[in-house]
Amino acid sequence: MNAQPAGSHDVPAPLLTVEHLTMRFGGLIAVEDLSFQALDRQITAIIGPNGAGKTTVFNCLTGFYRPTIGRLSLHLPDGDRLLERMEGFRIAQAGVARTFQNIRLFPRMSALENLVVAQHNPLMRASGYSFLGVLGVGGYQEAEDQAVALARLWLERVDLVEQADWDAGNLPYGAQRRLEIARAMCARPVLLCLDEPAAGLNPRESAELNQLLLSIRDEERMSFAPIWARR
Known about the structure:
By secondary structure, the protein is of the alpha/beta class. It folds into 2 domains: about 1-95 and about 190-230, P-loop containing nucleotide triphosphate hydrolases (Rossmann fold, 3-Layer(aba) Sandwich); about 105-190, no CATH class. The protein is built from 7 helices and 9 strands; from the N terminus they run ββββαββαβααααβαβ. The strands form 2 sheets. It has a 5-stranded mixed beta sheet, sandwiched between helices. Strands 3-2-5-6 form a 4-stranded antiparallel beta sheet, with helices on one face. A hairpin with a 2-residue loop joins strand 5 and strand 6.
């Protein structure tokens, strides 16, 4: 398994530093002594054969697993975040989002609702973490309007405006892939981890997805860490 940066010849500052990451499950070593950096506003790919531990790396970065050994540092303007010491929801609040190899949308919610749900952190803050938001108290209505506006913006970016009211589970597979990326972007991440983003797509859909990701990187000044399986 290798981590390879791709992008311009100018070397920006690191956004993520992984040092000596090891993940053991009993006697099984899923990841052993992995170190790499993901650079700011670049695409850093994690490449390896099936079973090499690529998804396990993402699970450690996003708080699903606590690594057995290792230091995972997210470098932000206001200071570093040590991801291995943070709960998963705080990692998300710090600006790390992800997609999954097997799509995990809410299939019975509309495309628009999936994107609004992704913004639950600011909505919960606006509600005061209580039922006051349901009653329209405070700034919740304004926050909800902003969440819907951002959701519609990303539906437009991924060419799904006309399917905004469709149940996510009824969308074509390629559209579901794009919707999952839009949902992650609605969390306003600084680093987006993409687990096999082109899995199950045909060549045309894969090329369109590549163009979408490049446009997001350039226009949103984003960093990506995608997984690709080496066949």
